Amino acid sequence: MKGYHIAVVGATGATGTELLRVLERRNFPAASLRAIGSKRSVGKSVRFRDESIPVEGLDDRSFDKIDIAFFSAGGDVSRNYVPIACQADAIAIDKSSAFRMDPHVPLVIPEINAEDVRQNRGVIANPNCTTTVMLMALYPLHRAFGVHRVFATSFQAVSGSGVRGVEELSRQIRQSTQAEELSKPESTPPAPAAADATIYPHPIAFNLLPHVDSFLESGYTKEEAKMQDEARKIMHLPELRVSVTCVRVPVYRAHSVAVSAEFERSVSVEQAHEVLAKAPGLELVDEPRGNRYPMPLGVAGKDNCQVGRVRLDCAFENGLSFWVSGDQLLKGAALNAVQIAELL
After folding, report:
1. Rounded-to-integer distance, Cα 227 and Cα 42, Å
2. Would you call 66 helix, strand, or coil by DSSP?
3. What is the pTM for the complete model shown?
């Protein structure tokens, strides 16, 4: 088997660290690995296959003799350096939103539109993590029944904001717990002070934030618009209507999405179960009377997404409501990127 020379940009970040684990776990044929990080990460090292690999800075020569370059360092870095990687004849697999809606760049979830990889001109985009989790359950249902429109609400973990989001939630929980000890016999923990919020505009511990990303003139957020735009591109449904509310929740890892979808053809719960049970990368966990349904704790650290709470939607003529959870650092990011590299 041919060995490929790999570069990982953002190797010390949450997604980059997960990417290294996935490459190793899936025994990707890497002949060499170049770990690239920010200036503050240079001099550190990462572990890969029992080796300590020094972290290099990013420059115009970073992609010399590289076959595949994974980008997990944000849109600005991707916009500046993906073209340089392509000029060096590397294929870039980009996690950021920089190229997702470029008509010349495939936006790929391998279980859904693997053939689109063939259209690449040196860049392949990884979808938004929440879009990926939703489509892992929605797409097989679309193939069977023809999706017409979708209403959804996402429940997104703080690790979607990187390590700093996790640290902020942990700090606020500690502060609230300490305050509760001091204020006994009160039964309800005091909320963290707004001054303790640095990553988010309000405290996230014991709270819900009804937006992820900045607001657009429409009143939707960028994250919510991404879910419609990316779903249209991935599923090749340019007229698909998707209305989403994205919510940041005090969960460390794994995103969940509540979905109500209307279909062109009649559908039953039994038919939906049959379709979902056969879908690749997806597990059907749907025994609500036994309290078995997907949860973030149940999918954290797992490759497959899970779907459950499947029921006929009472507001649609041909509709289903369901709940899907998935690890946004794995299927939503690192695993999906490595699967794209495997397709290549």
Report:
1. 35
2. coil
3. 0.94
| pLDDT recorded at residue 36 | 97
Which of 129, 142, 148, 246 is catalytic? The answer is: 129
Judge whether 129 counts as a catalytic residue. Answer: yes
Instruction: Tell me 161's DSSP state.
Output: G
Alpha carbons 278 and 181: distance in angstroms, whole number: 50
314 is catalytic: no
Q: Give the bridge partners for 94, in sequence order.
A: 71, 125
Q: Grade residue 2 by pLDDT with cuts at 50, 70 and 90.
A: confident
- Whether 325 and 254 have beta carbons less than 8 Å apart is answered as yes
Q: Which of 142, 148, 246, 255 is catalytic?
A: 255
Instruction: Identify which of 140, 111, 142, 141 has the alpha carbon closest to the alpha carbon of residue 127.
Output: 111
Neighbours of 185 (CB within 10 A): 4
pLDDT given for residue 327 in this prediction: 98
Q: Look at residues 336, 321, 291, 274 and name the one whose alpha carbon lies nearest to residue 136.
A: 336
Amino acid code (one letter) for 167:
E
3-state SS class at 170 = helix
* Residue type for position 148: H
DSSP-assigned states of every residue in 254-286: -EEEEEEEEESS---HHHHHHHHHH-TTEEE--
DSSP state of 214: P
d(CA 276, CA 257): 16
**pLDDT > 70: percent of the chain:** 95
